[in-house]
Design brief:
- The chain is of the alpha/beta class.
- Helix content is 39%, strand content 17%.
- It has 8 helices and 9 strands.
- The protein has helices spanning 17-30, 48-58, 73-87, 108-117, 139-155, 173-182, 195-204, 230-243, and strands spanning 4-10, 35-42, 62-67, 93-96, 122-126, 133-135, 169-172, 210-214, 216-218.
- The chain has a 7-stranded mixed beta sheet with strand order 3-2-1-4-7-5-8, sandwiched between helices.
């Protein structure tokens, strides 16, 4: 039976993270298959590290990886990917989500079911598919997210995907491994929040099968200020037009992981 590995980067999330971890633990208890949790503490300066150490000691299925200093979301995601690629099989499923308690992990089993039943490489938990919605997001942030959706759908189209900035995703690990090989390890070159859309931008240049599952974004539950630098993130989006190209010199045939 394939493993489910839930992985999340965390930076100064002492308030929301314990609530999210308790929800993940409840999901883990309900799933009758191997289920592990990986958290990257990206140099937190609050009590995030202490909280994670306590959870790791109490729950044997949880592993904490610590960056001694804050390296940014891009480096945290690279740590997650490399850790899993070294230890897990192509058929295993990676789930990523935000650590601020705005993504409810109760839909994890549905994401896994969809990626396996439809033999997909990627499933995005999406606000923009039927049944998805946003709660507590400011009108300006809604404008940004919809602008990003149109921008990436135009320049980096992936059939079946509309929410490019959602970090709540299910990946078939074999597809991630293949993508890292195609890009010679340079899947993530951004270090801010734009790294999440860079991943999808690079996937768009490969022959992947993807879909979406409805997400209710619970932004009203976020207890800490947003760490996203809007102007820097938008600049990063535009820079992807120059930086993300279709890799050359390798077969375009898609591997199937059954």
């Amino acid at each position: 039976m394939n493993n489910i590995v839930v992985a999340l980067p965390a930076y100064n999330e002492e308030t929301g993270l314990p609530k999210l971890l308790d929800k993940i633990i409840a999901v883990q208890a309900s799933v009758e298959r191997p289920f592990e949790v990986i958290v990257v503490d990206d140099g937190s300066t609050d009590r995030t590290g202490e909280i994670l150490k306590d959870y790791e000691q109490r729950y044997p299925f949880m592993t904490v990886i610590t960056h001694r200093k804050n390296k940014g979301l891009g480096e945290a995601m690279k740590t997650i990917f490399h850790f899993l690629l070294d230890r897990y099989d192509d058929k295993d499923i990676l789930i990523t989500l935000d650590a601020d308690n705005t993504h409810h992990p109760k839909i994890i089993p549905a994401l896994v079911e969809k990626i396996e039943a439809e033999q997909l490489d990627l499933v995005v938990a999406s606000r923009f598919t039927r049944g998805g919605k946003e709660m507590g997001l400011s009108p300006l942030r809604k404008v940004y997210s919809r602008g990003a959706r149109l921008f990436f759908k135009m320049f980096f189209p992936i059939s079946g995907v509309y929410d490019y900035s959602s970090g709540f995703r299910a990946y078939r690990l074999g597809a991630v491994r293949q993508a890292f090989a195609r890009y010679e390890g340079k899947m993530i070159t951004s270090n801010g929040f734009d790294c999440m859309v860079e991943i999808l931008a690079r996937f768009s240049k490969l022959d992947i099968k993807a879909g979406e599952y409805p997400l209710v974004l619970e932004y009203h539950l976020k207890e800490t200020p947003s760490k996203m630098k809007v102007i820097r993130t938008i600049t990063g989006y535009f820079s992807l037009l120059r930086r993300v190209k279709k890799p050359v010199g390798l077969s375009d045939e898609r591997e199937v992981y059954e």
